[in-house]
Amino acid sequence: MASSARSSPLYRALLRSFSTTTRPSHHNSHHHTHHYTEPSSFIGSWDAPSSPREAEAKLAQLRRDYAKQVKEIRKEYIKEVELMRLEKLRKDEARKEALRVQNEERRRLKAEAAKVRAQQRQIEEEEFRQTLLKERAEKLENWKMKEMLREKEKEEKNELLRRQSSLWIDEPELEKKMLEAIVDSKHL
Q1: Distance between CA atoms of residues 89 and 94, nearest Å
Q2: Calpha distance 156→172 (Å, rounded)
Q3: Are 46 and 37 within 8 A, CB to CB?
Q4: Three-state DSSP string of the chain
Q5: Cα-atom radius of gyration of the chain, to the nearest Å?
Q6: How far apart (Å, rounded) are the C-alpha atoms in residues 8 and 123?
Q7: CB proximity list for 58: less than 8 A, separation 6 or greater
Q8: Distance between CA atoms of 56 and 66, rounded to whole angstroms?
């Protein structure tokens, strides 16, 4: 019983009326903004005429007047609908323009960011190239130093060998030493 009472349309309508929003929702805002037309002058305007012919003429006049009023109301309605359509079209165009501007701005920012990244990458590549050149120069310098050391050691060795070779024994002495060595083999 309690659940069926809660699902009743009256209960839902009552709950809806206690809505927490103070502004009307977009669904029922037309209730607050709608302008009703004045009550029709045709309602309650019929007085019973004395003759049927007069009644028929009066009724025809009422119908013509009513048709004119309906025609005027329809014209106003068409104008209002056209104005609403134009306003909606204007809003759509403004929204599209805002989106286009926003997209252009986003593309421009993206292009600028890409340009900045490219510049950073170029700077990093240049720094890397400079570091490589520096390392190569250091390696070349190191290699040159080692080569110079090798050459120096070679020259020192050659110099030592040349000095030692200048101390070599003369030929007559050499024969005497050889003879001594052959005779006295203990020293060897």
Answers
A1: 9
A2: 30
A3: no
A4: CHHHHHCCHHHHHHHHHCCCCCCCCCCCHHHHHCCCCCCCCCCCCCCCCCCHHHHHHHHHHHHHHHHHHHHHHHHHHHHHHHHHHHHHHHHHHHHHHHHHHHHHHHHHHHHHHHHHHHHHHHHHHHHHHHHHHHHHHHHHHHHHHHHHHHHHHHHHHHHHHHHHHHCCCCHHHHHHHHHHHHHCCCCC
A5: 58
A6: 73
A7: 46, 49
A8: 15
Supply 118's token pair: 């490219």
> Taking the chain (188 residues) in consecutive chunks of 10 residues, what is each chunk's mean pLDDT?
60 63 59 71 72 87 91 95 96 96 97 96 96 95 94 90 70 77 69
Structure tokens given for 162: 């040349």
- Sequence-distant (6+) residues with CB within 8 A of 55 are 48, 49
**185, HSE (Cβ side, Cα atoms, 13 Å):** 1
Pairwise CA distance, residues 60 & 49, whole Å? 13
Tokens of 149: 């050391």
Residue type, 130: Q
pTM: 0.39
Q: Which two tokens stand for residue 7?
A: 């699902």
What's the gap between Cα 53 and its chain centre?
Answer: 80
